[in-house]
Design a protein that fits this description.
The chain is an all-alpha fold and 131 residues long. Helix content is 56%, strand content 0%. Helix 1 packs across helix 2.
């Protein structure tokens, strides 16, 4: 993945993640691992522009993956942030076996329930890195 991928408009939301949003995402894992997930999320979001390193495929990817498949009303931004991070990981070849077209199809109805701005961000992200 090139260094400009995180600068694509669809992925700009990653850089706006709040401490509360990262806390919520980190909380999707086991309680005893929350602090470690939270620290790793901070690095991925703030220092790495949303790009995971191979050693981060458990901390924090475990909770990122859960967040991308776990929509909870009131936490739309967290859901979208996780979705964007998963898309970047798949595009970078770090998550082999994830069929993005199938994921888009499986979650299409959920994406349609999001506020229009967030829905468009997700759909634009899928399209930006398709093919």
């Amino acid at each position: 993945m090139d260094n400009a991928t995180h600068a694509l408009p669809a992925f700009a939301l990653i850089g706006t993640a709040s401490a509360a949003e990262l806390d919520w995402i980190a909380g999707l894992g086991h309680a005893e691992e929350q602090a470690r997930h939270r620290a790793a999320l901070q690095v991925v979001v703030n220092d790495q522009g949303g790009r995971l390193h191979d050693h981060q495929l458990w901390y924090p990817y475990e909770v990122i993956e859960r967040g991308a498949g776990h929509y909870q009303p009131g936490h739309e931004r967290e859901f979208v942030l996780c979705t964007l991070l998963v898309i970047l990981a798949v595009h970078a070849g770090q998550r082999l076996g994830v069929d993005m077209a199938l994921q888009l199809d499986d979650l299409a109805a959920t994406y349609e329930t999001l506020p229009p701005v967030l829905r468009d961000i997700v759909l634009d992200a899928y399209q930006a890195l398709a093919g």
